[in-house]
Write a structure and sequence with these properties.
heterodimer; A: 376 residues; alpha/beta; 15 helices; 10 strands; globular; B: 154 residues; mainly beta; five-stranded antiparallel sheet
Chain lengths: 376, 154
C-alpha cells in the first residue's frame, strides 16, 4: 500500500542551531536516530549551508557521506528571493530566475529531489527556470502558505501550466498551516505577555470560529492572493495612515469594527490580535486529495504539540487540522513526504533562555502524531 | 524573534585607532532564521546611554574582512552573511565608553523580504533609517540591553 513518508525541515531547529546546541550533522543524526522511521531531510539553503551560494567541494563531499552514514535522504531544499540584493535596483524577473537556476544547480549537487520557492514568486520566474529543473531532474514546488488557500489563483496558475505543458517538474508545496483554524495557545499567551488583553484573545478565537462557521463580517473575505508577512506590514501601515491597497480594505475595516465593538479603547496590540483571524486560509481538506498529482512535497507546519487527553504518549496540534488532509492524501495515494516544520519557538523567545521552547522535543512529538495519523 | 539574544552580552569593548580609543564595539547575530547576502544589511539603531549613534558612525566586521561602513557593505552583493556567524558592530565615539554598566537600545535593519514589496523602489533610492520600524525585518521592536564594559574598557 502507498505510504506517506516522514521527514524534518531544519527550519524546525533554527533556534537550536542559533545557540549552537545542534550543528548540521547533529540535526541530521537526530532525524536518523530518534524519529522512528523518518528519513527525509529538508534544508533552507541560507540557514544550513556555509558560504552560500558556493559551498566548498569538501562540504559537498561530507554532506553525501552524512546521507550515507545516517541513512537519510535529501528531499527538499527551500530557497529565497531577496529582490534588493543589488541595492541599486530592484531585481527583474530575469535576475530572480537566474538566482533560482543557481539554487536548482546547488540542490542537484547536494542530491535534493525538490526545490521549494516562496509562495510569492511570480509564475513567470518559475517558468523561466523550469528548463534547468527539467534538465537536472529536480522538481520545482511553489509553497502554498497561509493565508493562501489551495483553491486560489496561485495554485490554479501552476495547475494550468502543468496541464498545458505536461511538465513533470513543477508543482506545489502545501504548508499544513493552511489548515489552521485558530491560533495556538502558545501564541495567545505570547500576545498577552506583549500587552494584549485576554479579552482580545478571546474575541480572536471567537472570530476564528465564526469564520469557520461562515458567519460574521469576515466570513466572505478572500485573502488568497497575499502572503502572511506582506499583509501584516500592510495592516500596520493601515493602522498608522488609514491607507491600504483596495484589496485589503473590506477586511481591514471589518477588523477595526469588530475590535471597536468589543473593546472600548483598543490598543494597537488589540487590533493586531484580532487581525490574526484573517491570516488563516480556510482551505478545505478535500482539496488536498484533488491536488495530489501536483504536490511535490508538504511542509508539516505546527505550532505546539500537546498530549491528547486520555491518550498518554500520543500528541496533537490543537490549532491545525491534520486528520482531515492526511485522510484525503491517503485516499489519493500520496507517496511523498510530510516534513515537520516547527514554528512555535518564536512564541517563547521573549522569555529567559531557560524558558525557550525545546525544538527537538516538539519535533519528536509531531513525528509521533504524523506516524499515528499515517498508520491509522 | 530572537531579539533578546542578538547581542552577545559579554562582547562590549572599546577599540583603538592610531593608538587612541576611537569608539566601542560589540558582537551581533542575524535576526532571522537564515543568513542573507551581506548587501542587504542596512545598519543599526543604537542608542547607548541615551545618545543615538546613527548608521554613518557605524562599521561592520564579518567574514574575516576589516570593518566596513554601511555604504561599502551595500556593495557586498555576492558576499553572504551566514546564519551561524557573529559580526562585530563598531561605533565611533572618540574616547569610547567608561567601564561599568551601559544601557543600549538596539534594532537591526536587514532588508530581507518575501519577494517583491511595495517599498522596494523607495528603499533603493532611500533605504529606511534603522530604528524607524521600516526595514527591521524580524526584529519588530527596539530592544533594550544592559551591557557591562570591563575594567580598562577592553
Amino acid at each position: 500500500m502507498a505510504k506517506i513518508r516522514r521527514g524534518v525541515s531544519f527550519y524546525s531547529y533554527q533556534q537550536t542551531q542559533f545557540f549552537k546546541q545542534l550543528n548540521l550533522e547533529g540535526q541530521i543524526r537526530e532525524v536518523s536516530e530518534n524519529l522512528d522511521g523518518a528519513d527525509g531531510i529538508e534544508i533552507l539553503d541560507e540557514q544550513s549551508l556555509r558560504q552560500y551560494p558556493h559551498p566548498p567541494d569538501d562540504f559537498i563531499e561530507r554532506w553525501h557521506q552524512w546521507m550515507e552514514r545516517y541513512q537519510v535522504k535529501p528531499v527538499t531544499m527551500d530557497v529565497f528571493m531577496d529582490v534588493l540584493q543589488f541595492r541599486d535596483h530592484v531585481m527583474s524577473y530575469h535576475e530572480c530566475a537566474e538566482r533560482l537556476m543557481g539554487d536548482i544547480r546547488l540542490a542537484k549537487r547536494l542530491g535534493f529531489k525538490n526545490v521549494r520557492t516562496l509562495a510569492v514568486v511570480p509564475i513567470e520566474i518559475l517558468v523561466e527556470a523550469l528548463p534547468v529543473a527539467e534538465e537536472l531532474d529536480v522538481r520545482l514546488g511553489k509553497e502554498i502558505h497561509n493565508p493562501i488557500p489551495l483553491h486560489g489563483k496561485y495554485v490554479q496558475e501552476i495547475v494550468e501550466h502543468v496541464d498545458r505543458s505536461g511538465t513533470k517538474h513543477l508543482g506545489i508545496v502545501p504548508d499544513m498551516g493552511i489548515f489552521q483554524y485558530q491560533p495556538s495557545d502558545s501564541k495567545l499567551e505570547w500576545m498577552i505577555r506583549h500587552g494584549a488583553s485576554r479579552k482580545a484573545t478571546e474575541i480572536l478565537t471567537q472570530t476564528c470560529l465564526d469564520i469557520r462557521a461562515g458567519v460574521g463580517p469576515l466570513a466572505g473575505v478572500d485573502m488568497s492572493l497575499v502572503t502572511a508577512g506582506n499583509i501584516e506590514v500592510s495592516f500596520h501601515r493601515f493602522l498608522k495612515t488609514g491607507e491600504c491597497d483596495p484589496y485589503f480594505k473590506t477586511a481591514f475595516d471589518a477588523i477595526v469594527k469588530i475590535t471597536k465593538a468589543s473593546i472600548s479603547t483598543p490598543t494597537v496590540m488589540d487590533y493586531d490580535v484580532i487581525f490574526q483571524s484573517i491570516l488563516f486560509s480556510r482551505t478545505r481538506p478535500e482539496d488536498m486529495g484533488k491536488l495530489m498529482p501536483y504536490i511535490i512535497s508538504i511542509h508539516g507546519k505546527f505550532y505546539h504539540t500537546t498530549e491528547i487527553p486520555g491518550l498518554p504518549g500520543e500528541y496533537e496540534d490543537c490549532s491545525i487540522d491534520y486528520e482531515g488532509p492526511i485522510s484525503y492524501l491517503k485516499q489519493a495515494g500520496y507517496e511523498g513526504y510530510i516534513n515537520s516544520e516547527y514554528e512555535g519557538q518564536r512564541f517563547y523567545q521573549d522569555l529567559p533562555f531557560e524558558q525557550l521552547a525545546d525544538e527537538v522535543d516538539q519535533v519528536r512529538k509531531h513525528q509521533k502524531m504524523l506516524k499515528r495519523l499515517i498508520d491509522a | 524573534m530572537l531579539d533578546n539574544f542578538l547581542v552577545r552580552k559579554d562582547s562590549l569593548m572599546n577599540f583603538t585607532e592610531d593608538g587612541r580609543v576611537a569608539g566601542f564595539k560589540f558582537a551581533v547575530r542575524n535576526a532571522n532564521y537564515r543568513g542573507v547576502f551581506l548587501s542587504l544589511h542596512n545598519g543599526y539603531y543604537i542608542k547607548m546611554d541615551n545618545v543615538v549613534y546613527p548608521r554613518e558612525v557605524q562599521e561592520f566586521e564579518v567574514n574575516g574582512q576589516p570593518p566596513r561602513d554601511f555604504e561599502e557593505i551595500k556593495t557586498a552583493v555576492y558576499e553572504h552573511w551566514d546564519y551561524d556567524d557573529e559580526g562585530i558592530v563598531y561605533v565611533y565615539k572618540p574616547g569610547g565608553l567608561t567601564p561599568g554598566k551601559h544601557v543600549m537600545e538596539f534594532q537591526q535593519s536587514v532588508l530581507a523580504a518575501y519577494g517583491y514589496m511595495p517599498t522596494d523602489e523607495i528603499w533603493v533610492k532611500e533605504p529606511p533609517v534603522p530604528g524607524s520600524g521600516a526595514g527591521s525585518d524580524k526584529t519588530v521592536s527596539i530592544v533594550t540591553y544592559e551591557l557591562e564594559l570591563g575594567e580598562g574598557g577592553f
